[in-house]
Design brief:
CATH architecture of the largest domain: 3-Layer(aba) Sandwich
CATH topology of the largest domain: Rossmann fold
Number of strands: 14
CATH superfamily of the largest domain: Glycogen Phosphorylase B
Largest sheet: 8 strands, mixed
Distance between the termini: 72 Å
Strand content: 15-25%
Oligomer: single chain
Helix content: 40-55%
Structural class: alpha/beta
Radius of gyration: 27 Å
Amino acid sequence: MPNKTSEKKKEYSKSEIESILRENDWLKKEIKYLRKLTNSKRFKFAEKIATGFNGIFPINTKRRDIIDSVTGVSEKIRAKQVERKIKNKSRQILDMSKQYEKVIVLNSIPWDTKLKQRPHHLADQLTKLGFFVIYLEDNPLNQFRIIKDNLVTINNKDLLQAFAESDQKLYFLTPNNMPTSYKELNEVREYGFEIIYDFLDEFHEDISGDLSIQLKVWDNLNKLSPVLCLATAKKLYNQLDEHLAGKKHKIIMASNAVNVEHFDYSHNNTQNCPLDLRKIYNSKKPIIGFYGALAPWIDFDLINETAKEHPEWEFVLLGIDYNGAASELANYKNIHNLGSKNYEDLPKYTKFFDCAIIPFKHGEIATATSPVKLFEYMAAGLPTVCTRDLNECKGYEYVYMAKNNNEFAECLKQAIKDVKSKKIRDKLLEQAKEQTWEKRAKAISEAL
């Protein structure tokens, strides 16, 4: 008789249980919707039509074959029409760009996101340097938009095909976390574009989900012969250098940066506290602020523990709930999740913060991240407390690196004192002015 081995029951964390419960609720709603749909008059009517159609034109009969062939011809005609429209639109974009010597495509997230990110800022600055910028986004609602004379958005790389006839300098900047396939990048090269590879994040499923497409591009990066590689962190720079060893390549550090004018605390004329922050502000307690993705790499346990130990502080978080991670926030009176805010509105909130935090969990994501918000906090004159693995946050005055939970609270005490000093706030602003998107764009342009 075989020996029976006792199996340990799997223990689930609170966040895993909550995730399972959310998934279960979603499935219940989906089932309810499907039942409602299949019982609707419209569905039953459509089912009758389909049944009648199959009765008149049974499958595997000559009558059905004739109908299918007519349908096939119609689909081919529609495909030709779409292809012709794409060619015409591609020609229009090429004509718009002809007065510009350099054309760069930024392959990225949707243009209309609430929080402006690296690609939005680079697009804006590169237009000022004389590039014609084409912003390639995943946006089924907008095939083509003109943002300004030398900045357009498209949602299909085939709209670049007319550039195959161009004698302009053509560049296609693609970040390592975008699921653009190796095959698609080769097609872009056939249109005459040289690849710029932007290594901006650690390869991690918490950030990008399934990485099979991105890793195939990484494995074949040498074959794509990138004209330039960018790295946002020293760790990523070293990985690129090692990965491309023995091959001719150009790599530059191009960490994230800031639009100083937008956040400059010395010119922030906000008078009224935002409505959802007013009650918190009126408590007269120090406000510790954070904005950005409320994601799995944020150390919510650290926030919860610090808030519990220090009820005299208010913790205000602004940002999207990334994959339900925000459910890990404790329901304490001094933790306030105010949701995502538009980029234009962020200074209205930072005006009333006493300091800021970047509380990443320890690990690979933190060690390879250059947080955009770091320099934005600086420009806002906010002393900032970071967790220990955020290597790209080290080396700045009044940016404190906490080694553990206790030190995190001690650093916050100091940061809350610092904000009362105009000299300290001016120093933070001065440091921000050395880390602008204008300087990053110039570095890229010069490297090309």
